[in-house]
Amino acid sequence: MKTYRQMIPGEHTAGSVIPQPKEAQNGEGVFHLQNSCAILFGQELSEEAEFLSRRLADRFGLKLPIREISGHSPGRGNIVMERTKSLEDCGYESYILQVDIDGIQLEAPQPAGIFYGIQTLLQLIQAGDGQIFLPVLEITDWPMLKLRGVHIDLKAQMPTFQYLKSILRRLAEYKINTVLLEYEDKFPYQSHPKIVSPLALSREQIKELNELARLLHIEIIPLLQSLGHVEYILSHSEYAHLREVPNDFSQYCPLNPESQRLFKELAAEIIELHPDIQFFHIGGDEADSLGQCPRCQAKAREIDKGGLYVEYINEICRFILNQGKRPVLWHDMLARNP
User: Fold this and answer.
1) 156 Cβ contact list (under 8 Å, min separation 6)
2) pLDDT tens, position by position, 202-216
């Protein structure tokens, strides 16, 4: 285990990295970044090398050449990124970052680990008096959690598309690897255009967002509410017949077959524009009006509210599974109605 000492806040050392690395040792001296340096990359790391090059150009005006590592020694004074098997036991997102006065070496078992090592490297860079430099140190790091996510809800406030992309970039800087994206009416539904907000993303923008997330090693999990929190739909008179309670816009009636049909049509469109997702979040939380319409009251007397909820949600889950995705839901209704 390498030593780790607490650093003064604001110092660009191992102690200032967010999140703090698992193992770190600070050395003496600095490595100076300058345009004579090159970014050298190994197998399947060209995108990560290009990412680092762009960030160094945007932030510091550096224009470092990018070259694939050949069979020769990479030489001194460069940034070298390579894959290694030495950290495989720590997971595919682990990395080793070594900075000395002669250059930078970044190693990881997979491209994701290289990407997170780059985020650490960028946090360590200092600029002043016409110089750009990093402290000499060695960091070995891996995440405590496999899934590190943020929920972005587009319901109440819709950011501009450029700002939404900047949110993803900022999250990636701190090694967030999952975004739960709740569209509500900000998705360009073609089968039900009535519920689409004028501020909705376009299909082209969603494709661009997917590509950005891939480059940032962020997994997007779309969220489409399946029972409650559907005011953006049921507030329209065309869908009023789906309400559990006539004067409540928030919840579908689970025994109205059109409720599931509508959900499935909307979900199919979202999946079409997110073909590579593993998970699909179906919401399912805070269905406080459950069991209040006459049909649901009668059904709840037979199988109680918990049974009413589970029957409905199971059908939703079967649909998502049939699309080749894994359903995810909030747990509160199951906890309240065991």
Assistant:
1) none
2) 999 999 999 999 999
**Contact predicate 334/286, CB 8 Å:** no
Q: Which of 11, 286, 302, 315 is catalytic?
A: 286
CATH number of the domain at 149-336, out of 3.30.870.10, 1.10.10.10, 3.20.20.80, 3.30.70.100? 3.20.20.80
- The pTM of the full predicted model, rounded to 2 decimals, is 0.90
Bridge-based pairing of strands 326-328 and 279-281 is parallel
Over its C-alpha atoms, the chain yields an Rg (Å, rounded) of 25
246-278 pLDDT tens trace:
999 999 999 999 999 999 999 999 999 999 999
Q: Which residue has the tokens 């319409």?
A: 293
At residue 128, the 3 state secondary structure works out as strand
Closest CA to 138 of 124, 152, 126, 149: 124
Q: Judge whether 151 and 140 are in contact, CB under 8 Å.
A: no
Catalytic-residue membership of 286: yes
User: What does the block give as tokens for 42?
Assistant: 């190994």
CA distances from 333 to 56, 185, 287, 330 (A): 48, 24, 7, 8
